[in-house]
Write the structure tokens for this entry.
Amino acid sequence: MILSLLIALNIFGQGSTPPKSDPKAAPPEAVRKLNRRERKDRIAKLSEKHRQFLQDVDPIILPAEIDGFLVLETDPQRDVFIDDFWRRRDQAMGLSNRAFRDLYYERIEDAKENFENLMSDRARMYLLNGQPMGVLKTSCDKLLQPMEIWTYEHVEGFGSRVPFLFYLPRNGREYKLWNPMAGQTSLAELLSSEQTGVVGADTDALANVFRASEWGGGMVSRIEIECKDGREILRAIYAMQSNKTTLLRVFEPPPINEEDISKVVRSVVIANPNAPKLTADVAFAYPGKDGSRTETQFTVLVPRSQLALKDVGGVQLYSLDVIGEVLRNDQMWEKYRYRFDYPSDIKDEKVPIIFNRLLRPQDYQSRIKVVDVNSGAEVVFENTIDVPDVHVAPTQSQAVATATVEQIRQNMGVSSLKIAPMSEDALAGLQKIETLVTGDDIKAVEFWLDGKKIAVRKSPPFTLDLDFGIVPQMRRIRAVGLDASGNPLTGDDIVVNTGTDPFRVRITSPRVAPNLKGRTRVTIEARVPDGKQLENVELFWNETKVATMYDPPFVQTVDIPATNGGVGYLRAVATLKDDPTPPVEDVVMINSPAYMAELNVHLVELPTTVLVSGKPVNHLLEESAFKVLDEGQPVKLSKFEHVKNLPLSIGLTVDTSGSMQPKMEVAQKTGATFLQQVMRKGDKAFLVAFDSQPQIIQKWSSNVSDMHAGLAKLRAEDYTSLYDAVVYSLYNFLGVKGQKALVLLTDGQDTSSKFTFDQALEYARRAAVPIYAIGIGLKSTEIDVRSKLNRFAAETGGNAYFIETAGGLTKIYADIENELRSQYVLGFYPPEEVKPGGKWREVTVQVSEGKAKTIRGYYP
């Protein structure tokens, strides 16, 4: 049945049998189109559930999606595809949680009740576009066939308030959408049986309705006079004729990014029958536990002699892709992808591919495909795995996997030290540092702060009270466990006051590793902003990439060489999917002295605006047009970027004290307009409100609608904590790269802050984020408030504006947007003699024309 439906809708293409696939390419069925015979055969093999799915979604599914669905090999894969099918529709409609699926099936039930069948024109129109805003049913039996005129508020590709005319054909049972492309013959189809004898005489007159000067006479005049709603009928006929070319696409499914379809297909295990075969072994081990889940380690050994080398610029690598599925009771439990790269000088006769998944103790079906990227050769494993609770002795029989796990355990040692997690909020003042120590070998703990050893605790509990200072600053804390002779064994380090940027990656183990060699287990955590997806996490040993991981848990075994003491570093790099946000990374030194001095590699970034005749310009595209002076001495630029290519990070901080009540509505609306206009793909923003204390209303988000929702929540009450709001807002920028700006809106003097103006100003200097301060309704006599807002702006390279009423915000926001899109980011490294923690250093930017505006200086 579904085959005939697809043919009827012309969804099947006329494709021919494709040429024989290149085995070096991706699996051919993941990308190629199926011909009619292939589609028919594959549909016939589907379960009733999945044939019904195709029939249900017939009006809205794309041909490429049909092909993608039919190339899948198993029902669990098809279930994954269906979930992603609805996710794509949700995304296109701005919905979530498969809300469109629920809406669509409600439409199906309505269509079954109200229309002859789901393949009728009215049913398909309803399934595609939902309930029209109006339906006009005509009654003019002497002249016209029964008609319905459906009017929609808006239909993509057709415009707004567009009518669609359905008519009941003579001797027909179901309404059809009128097709004006058939010319005058199609006009005759609208006439009633009584008029068939005069069609020849009056068809020309009816056709003339499409000329503005021919509204009178003949059939047109009779329709207008004799038919109830005659003028609406004629308008509908005219509109349909005007849209006749577009109407050819009226039943086309809404467009979807076809690349997403290919990604879904490539994310599951599909064998390529044309690919050369690898011979490999797979083994499973269970080295640990995370909560109620057992850590399941997969080890695949591939003979090196079967792999092909890739040469890129003289660097030769073996490259292997892993695609896997874990099924439970014939349902997709999880799927994953990894990419591994190995140097050409690897000595193992069998190349080890080791990765970890966290699974609850029970039985699973495992499907794994390993592909040699350079030759296209592949192997597919299908195994049943019995994941035990680690309290029960594991039953794996593979000696290689057991030996690998045992070596990892030996490398980890019996002693461990972790710093107890600390709050992610801004931390200042006295803070307690606690450690979690296991094993009898640790006799003392050294504590380091920002690269300097500050204390040793020689007896439990190994804790220390640290003063973080008056305002929150980024601090690096390291704890090193020592044996009885004072030698370092293990340790941990954390960084606090890192801001609230939601995109982070961290190597969680090892952190402090003074004595590692051989196979070492590396674990990584990645935090991704709401609404974003992680593309991958790459792991490097020194500059050699050892793994690309696409799905958590991010666990990889790295072979730390014993030569040269094994000194080196691990580096994890996380990248977002389809997002211009720069990748983030984390680095851990391995086998380096605990007291190794930290180098000053702090890049000073200067967000710079060039003003000519008081207006920002952006035509200076050469680095040579700029000169930077650090304490009066020229420095070499290490970074020069024009802002048009950089993601923009905006903080909007709004005074919600009681005095803002009469201005709040305008402030909300103009703020929403500003964000709507200034934010582009890759940008993000947050919203802070402050009265007696600041509070985050909307955390970092790239979704403008989130910010609008936050603005809608604002209410005016209580006192004004302006300086606290400045510190609290700037804290959110810690760790954020690229172009930044804080827009601060207030109408009064600070009355309740814990921080002083001088403390807030110092923090603003350290943050180096341009502040655009807007004073609204400030009297000319309020010199102190105006002066302090000017200081915030001048010290950070922003601007200060003063307006009488909220109505002036529109122009100010337009000026800020113009400046933010006309900036340069200059960067330099301080001279070698400048040490971290030094005094404030003054910076000046000179430019070949006009005047440069930037931050006044920096703290190293």
Summary: The chain has a mean pLDDT of 82. The two ends are 73 Å apart (CA to CA).
